[in-house]
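Researcher: We plan to redesign the surface later, but first we want a full-length starting point. Tokens attached.
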């Protein structure tokens, strides 16, 4: 079972990433782009994810993953129930979402310094 503390340090440590609180909700940004956001009760983690792969992710485990609200379907976004994720899985989702908003050279540099992933 993952909790927000499992990814809090990671979100602040990734290159160009920083945490912000918007209306009481923790979000991680690179520049003005939000790539991870938590619900007010910290039970749901929204994260950047390719639109074309969303249906497969949600369909593969609907207990764990849900589509975003109708107004957010136009974005590269999906939701995950934190309690259904393992801590390692939550960290991997954060890193993958971060990769969507940073230059490829930063993503490659992360791989070189973290060969075993965010584990």
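Model: Full-length starting sequence:
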């Amino acid at each position: 079972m993952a909790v927000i503390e499992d990814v809090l340090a990671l979100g602040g440590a990734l290159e160009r990433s920083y945490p912000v609180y918007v209306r009481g909700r923790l979000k991680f940004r690179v520049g003005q782009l939000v790539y991870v956001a938590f619900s007010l009760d910290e039970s749901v983690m929204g994260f950047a994810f390719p639109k074309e792969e969303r249906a497969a992710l949600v369909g593969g485990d609907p207990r764990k993953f849900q589509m975003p609200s109708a107004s957010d379907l136009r974005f590269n976004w999906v939701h995950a129930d934190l309690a259904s994720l393992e801590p390692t899985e939550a960290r991997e989702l954060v890193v993958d979402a971060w990769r969507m908003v940073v230059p490829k050279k930063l993503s490659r540099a992360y791989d070189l310094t973290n060969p075993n992933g965010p584990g």
